[in-house]
Amino acid sequence: MFAGLPELGISNGEDLKETLTNCTEPLKAIDQFQTENGILLPTLQSALPFLDLHGTPRLEFHQSVFDELRDKLMERVATIAEGKDEERYGKLEELLEKSFPLVKMPSIQPVVMQVLKHLPKVPEKKLKLVMADKELYKVCAVEVKRQIWQDNQALFGDEVSPLLKQYIVEKEAALFSSDLSILHNFFSPSPKARRQGEVVLKLTQMIGKNVKLYDMVLQFLRTLFLRTRNVHYCTLRAELLMSLHDLDISEICSVDPCHKFTWCLDACIREKFVDAKRARELQGFLDGVKKGQEQVLGDLSMILCDPFACNTLVLSTVRNLQELLSQDALPRDSPDLMLLLRMLSLGQGAWDMIDSQVFKEPRLVCIHFLFPLELEVVTRFLPAMLSVVVDDYTFTVEQKLPSEEKTSLTYPTALPDAFNKYLQENRVACEIGLYYTLHIAKQRNKNALQRLLPALVETHNEMAFGDIFLHLLTGHLTLLSDEFGTEEFCSAVFDGFLLASFSSKENVHRHTLRLLLHLHHKVLPSCVETLLKTLEPPKQSSDQVKELYTQLTEKLEAQKKSPAQPDEAPSLDLGLHPVTVPTTASTPTTPL
């Protein structure tokens, strides 16, 4: 406990023990020891007997003096470090040399740690001693740990790894939330609110202003993204940069070439829309990538692969298509749409680009603009998707006509071949198609949804069975809760889509159970019975699936005893404003 005192010429317990062992008059020896090692203040000696008269132990007195002096010393260390004296760090190093031998003494340790904390460059020998001692390493300030970490990537990785795992667990938990709602979903929190998460704040503190540590974290994120294909690492990459931006850490923001692009995109994510002004800024950043600096495209693609960025880009694409439809304009004539598709393509290709280390945008195709773009999405897929829209509106208008003017028009069930083809073969087209499906569900358009769902069974890389889309779809389906009372709609949602892969994909099983937990009282009873048998978890299922199934069976039992009251439809603020389309022979007459 008192290790290090002899090195400073101060007696400790062993010295007292030796003195008492060898002396002939113990009381005198003790008195002498107290005089030599007590507070060397002559006027104090005559005052100490007064404390004895008040029954105050000498230990209590000395401890209170010690604590006061220690606090004053620590304040003085902070004052010296914050001052402008050119010799301030020399003074602190001198104090460190004197105090470091006592670093294991609990009462002195805070002083040593305070000195270490305020030294911008701790002597390497001291750093190694701290790093080698688990207890010292644990209690030292993050400012000291940064100096240790920057030259010990493996140790830093050990510190960061649990945080990265925690981050992924939190994101996945949000996607499987028991709360199904269109208004409060995975994408509801603002960027600033997300950056207040525990993991982002801890990583920001660990990095501080250290560019080397920041680069290490980015490398960890790239490696994990490559290893797992988990897009939440892309979200963390953007959130970390913007968290440092919020704290005005210019030492890092000024050297990250993605800073201004991410800052602009962050503003778009906040608004859930890319307006014309910000679109021009984003295009300027992409066009400004110079020859020899193409590697920055890897980081830009990772930032665009962030699901929050992708969500904003696709919502903006759908809104842009609405406006084009109202103006009788072609998709390829819209510079804003071309930029949105360009960024979607770059984001969707992030994994391939980082994996191959080939830093160039996808195929170069010119459509009035000199930048990379996948031509088929614009000339084949989007027209096919808009034809689906026209079919829907034609049928809607037909139903509103007086009976004598109606024809025998039936709602189409098949989709254009080009729509199905690119849904299966093209990442960008598939993403747009999935969000169009959500858009249809948002409008409570049962006919169009029943037409689209079967096509989603086969999509590019099975994107329709990803957690993010299923999370959003289950939330959107709550708007059509009353439709689950019909066999036709239940068949389209469950048999036609969800049950097509639930047995081989546990995540689909979980999302299906989440949906039923929320809407079981609305679903056709005969359908519920069938689903209950079909969705019974096999033995090898995870605890989460078994728990959801148990909750569902318990709710159904409770429902039999006490029938549920009908729910009120939620009010909506959907963020996508309807655009009125001029009535002509070739265009629809209701909002997309």
UniProtKB/TrEMBL annotation:
<dbReference type="GO" id="GO:0032021">
    <property type="term" value="C:NELF complex"/>
</dbReference>
<dbReference type="GO" id="GO:0034244">
    <property type="term" value="P:negative regulation of transcription elongation by RNA polymerase II"/>
</dbReference>
<dbReference type="InterPro" id="IPR010405">
    <property type="entry name" value="COBRA1"/>
</dbReference>
<feature type="compositionally biased region" description="Low complexity">
    <location>
        <begin position="578"/>
        <end position="592"/>
    </location>
</feature>
<dbReference type="Pfam" id="PF06209">
    <property type="entry name" value="COBRA1"/>
</dbReference>
<protein>
    <submittedName>
        <fullName>Negative elongation factor complex member B</fullName>
    </submittedName>
</protein>
<feature type="region of interest" description="Disordered">
    <location>
        <begin position="556"/>
        <end position="592"/>
    </location>
</feature>
